Amino acid sequence: MPRQRVVLGVSGGIAAYKACELLRRFTESGGGADFEVTVVPTAAALEFVGAPTWAALSGKPVATDVWTAVHEVPHVRIGQEADLVVVAPATADLLAKAAHGLADDLLTNTLLTARCPVVMAPAMHTEMWEHAATAANVATLRSRGVLVIEPAEGRLTGADTGKGRLPEPEEIFELCRDLLERASTGATTQSAVGDLDLAGRHVVVSAGGTREKLDPVRFLGNRSSGRQGYALARAAAARGAEVTLVAANVTLPDPAGVKVVRVESTAELRDAVLTAAAGADAVVMAAAPADFRPVHRSDTKIKKSDDGSAPVISLEQNPDILKELSAHRPGAHTVVVGFAAETGDASGSVLDLARAKLARKGCDLLVVNDVGGGAVFGSDDNEAVILAADGTAVDVPRGSKGALAHVIWDQVSARLAPA
Asked: Structure pTM?
């Protein structure tokens, strides 16, 4: 398969140094066989990172104006030939120029000629991101099919903190690779707004496994790693959604463009999901909440006894978040998706138990995993059967958790009310 052609646009912000790591991710993927990267910095970007750095890392010459190698018509050719254009960081100035169709350098000309997926990763101070002018420019770009991902929250230039931080390069790379994979299969071209089928939608995803404290050092929990939930959040962001990810005890890096809310216990998970789900178009409960919690939690570490006896721990049921969401929908047309990790037993097979659970929970879709022998947990791969309340079923063969995530969003998208 020929290398995919990526244009990395870099505008003039302090986060330009992070784009070096993003470039490295592209150039080293598949041992350098997957992507051919052309870096197109603005003149301001070169005040932060010089042209020799970009040339050395990409293996290609670097220009900022339309006059270099003019006989090759770079201001048209680069955009025409690209499979993806990603701008990281995208400053407020760059967003404004792109929204208004200005073309005063090589990067803005490239953006006008590109007919491939375009991703912009904004980075700026919070006040600039929240300004009405920037908000309007972002809305304009999104309405044209540009994927403008939400900036992260954290340390900014100097002592300031807030929303406006460039997401981690690794996560921007994963989002871009996701887009390219879908584009190569015809799932999206991003030549029109409709290609980002979750654009304008707000979705909530839960991930990880909750912990119920027994004492200051012990807890009841499970083996959920959160990888499937994070894959769902990343896939939804790549399809244009506003994503809130409620993460229970997950140590994975935050997906680019996703708001992450961290929780520990099932009660905290319930409160966070219900709060985030208000007005949401879809809620996907990929987390594994603990079914039980101790009736009493010891304030001090439970000690071993001299006679070898073990303490008796009384348990009570946790709230059933999926059933509550299904019974009391956050919105009139909210699509609710649950997960079932089953092993099968004397009372029925994995699918028998899952169908009963679907009816009991009242959700629209139930993603069923056979976890016999510890399969799925912590793995990068997954396979599942997606059961629907209307009686249909979709078998998803073993593949990446990202691939399964997109099949799930395909099913959700087909059930969303018209925007």
From this structure: 0.90
